[in-house]
Amino acid sequence: MLESITYYYEYFIFYYASSMIFSYLFLGTISIINLIKYKSYNSDKDDDVLMKSPLVPGISVIAPAYNEEKTIIENVKSLLTLEYPLFEVIIVNDGSKDKTLDKLIDEFELIEVDFLYLEKIKTKPFKRIFKSTNPQYSILTVVDKENGGTKADASNAGINASVFPYFLCTDVDCVLSRQTLLKMIKPFLNTEGKVIAVGSTLRMLNGCEVKNGVITRVKPPKRLIPCFQELEYIRGYLLSKMGWSFINSVPNVSGGLGLFDKEVVIKSGGYSGDSHAEDMDMTTKMACYMMDNNLKYRVVYIPVSCCWTEGPTTVKVLGRQRTRWGAGLAQIFKVHRKVLFNRKYKKLGLITFPYIFIFEFLAPIIEFVGVLFFIYLAIMNKINWSMAYIIMLYSYTFAIFITTLVIIQDHIVFHHYKRTREVFRLVLMGFLEPLLYHPLIVFFAIKGYFNFYKGKELKWGTMTRTGVN
Amino acid sequence: MDFINWLYSLKLTIGSFPFIIQVSIVFICLSLFMSVFLVIYLTIIRNTNKIKEKLQDNIAPKVSQLFMEIIHNNYLEKEQEVKEKFEEIIDSDHKKVRKNKKYKHDLAIESLIKIRQNYKEESDRYSLIIRALNIEKYIGTKFSKLTYGAKKKAILELAELGLSSSDSRVLSYTYSSNNEIQTEARLSYLSLSRNDPYRFFDEIKGEMSSWSQIKLMNLLIEQSNTEGLPNFGKWIGYSKNDSLVIFLLKAATYFDQKKAIGTIREKIRSDNHILRSEVITALGKLKDFEIEDHLKNTYQNESDLCQVSIIKAIGYLGSGKSLEFLKQSFYEATSLDIKKVIATVIFDYDTDGKMLFFEMKSKIENKVDFSQKPLEINSYKENLYFNLQLFKHIENDLILYK
């Protein structure tokens, strides 16, 4: 009996890993096509066209903040310097317990104003709104509200206070490229069919040089964990999301940076206040709303790196972040279980959701069980080591190939790294990642699932910051 | 011989493995080969990029300087001299640059476009450089490339360099099946052609993308500075393409084409409420006072979108005759979004409007004490609270976007 379980399990693992490899190859191929297409039809000259135009739509930049006193001033200043003819910046103070709000009031000369705040999306009670008496900051609005426990609730308050038809949702600790709005609005203007959301590539801020809220030099992070994350982000955005975007099946627009059609967001109910994967939850809700109403839509990803965010530098902080993400993913499949394998939701229900469920949600569980099984076989001395090495190399070499491929893709888009050794450092990280970083990610994901099913309360994703250069 | 034997024995060994191990070995080899290949490719593209950067940093300023001298100071007269001077600058740097024609031509094109954009005045000296460096022919070679991206870039370059002689080449792409190429070609034709450049207004089919509208509007703005624009009323009148008409309405408004009012007015009975709303806005902005009474009469029967446009149009007209209508509309409106628009228009109307605004505000203030925000939903008090909040919102100068 045990023999036959072992036999079938081994085969299952092989076919599971192989199908994952083939899916990566497929995504890799279509992402390259999409990337070349993007490069062919877009250039920096388009930014000038938009800057000169009297017809551009307005954009509200919404950045929720919770206990961000260390970085809030620099980051808000960075948001205020974005290049776009018509935009406003809305900072939502989600009941911070530190001096986030006081610092904002002092620095930007804010006073409370009578603002017509219409609660189009339900949130925790809003308290007041501040505007600056300094004309230099006239586009800044600060919303102060009771703590809602999640970024989602704060983002909803920002949407309620916004005036423009599109809004960019970002984290206040992110540093955005000045051309972010110019790059991200273009798919809304130039894509056939209705675009409801646009995402862009996020990168690690650790290691970069920043001056007055603007990135002056991009470098890969020096420490191991953020460097692994840099690789993970490039892979996730340039390979995975660009691929999904090509077949109009993007599963989520990242919470760190996403531009949305406000009307569709409001009609689909806004961010779920209790969601901890608010980005995927929002994208799914919007897609479902469109399909429920028989409306065609597109969710687009652009390969340009527009946003840099500080990544965890220690295993402890990484663990906190990934456990939350794991719990968020589990929550998604509970909340949106009706979408999974549902023909009504077309590609989302039959391709994207099943893919994420099988290859992202179940993968850590299958891997974890595999490791336990491997240990059992080792103890029982039932491992043919020479064959085992080949099987391990099978996945390992493929991981290295994919890493090298995405680094090339990144170079096709833009040469961020000045020195060749910086690029080869990333290539080298590709060799270490499967051995050092990946096991941690698997462990934290399982911990996240466990926490979710135990009903452990989840809080705002606070992250210990070390600051940047 | 030993090596061949070794290979043969390896083949036999692998052949004796189970199927999945054989598949794995093939994939390991492929992955390793591809990784090495990609690393080599990475090194090549980094080197190529370094050369381009050098070109940009060292040679581009010198090339720009040379072109500026030729264009503005009448430096050099003959094509051969221009070519020699240009080559001299290029030869002063990197070997690989010297060998690669593509780099230097692209550099010349880029420099010329920048100069042309920065110094708007026309000069026949541009053509001296273009002829000397065979630029038109070089751009022509890009059309033979397979990628649409290259063709699009070539079309754009022809337009940006103002090479009117190539308009027939651009014309052939104006019916391309590729939307990006088609749009770019039509816009370029519009800027290049001396012979009926606006003919595409007759032929635009389907929805005009916002991007096309933005580019077209920018082009019209540029042309309005150099040469006259046609009366857009002509196409507004007979075009069956609503998205084109909406764009032309925006353009007619932007360029204040009062002569188009008559034709625009005819469109006010269109079944498309988005078009109708744009017509109303245009008539308001163009100060068509005759339409004001008609707008007020139809207000109640219009869609929300058109109602907003009517209110805004009355605001743009600012005739001083519609305050009572605005006041009545405010009290009858059920949506706070429309109320906000009406109150804003009353506030900005004229002195009487401001007086009415403060009168309406103080009426609410006298009715109820608002020291506490009311909690009852949809209550009379809540309505008043939001109305008062709305008035305070509008009168506050610190709120830039109402």
UniProtKB/TrEMBL annotation, chain A:
Single Gene Ontology MF annotation: glycosyltransferase activity
Family annotation (InterPro entries): Glyco_trans_2-like, Nucleotide-diphossugar_trans
Location of the Glycosyltransferase 2-like domain: 60-104, 130-197, 247-401
Signal sequence coordinates: none
Transmembrane segments: 12-36, 353-379, 385-408, 428-450
CDD domains: CESA_like (cd06423)
Similarity comment text for this entry: Belongs to the glycosyltransferase 2 family.
Protein name as catalogued: Glycosyltransferase
Automatic annotation (TrEMBL), chain B:
InterPro entries: ARM-type_fold
Protein name listed in UniProt: HEAT repeat domain-containing protein
Organism: Wenyingzhuangia gilva
Keywords, ordered alphabetically: Membrane, Transmembrane, Transmembrane helix
Source organism, top-level taxon: Bacteria
Transmembrane segments: 20-44
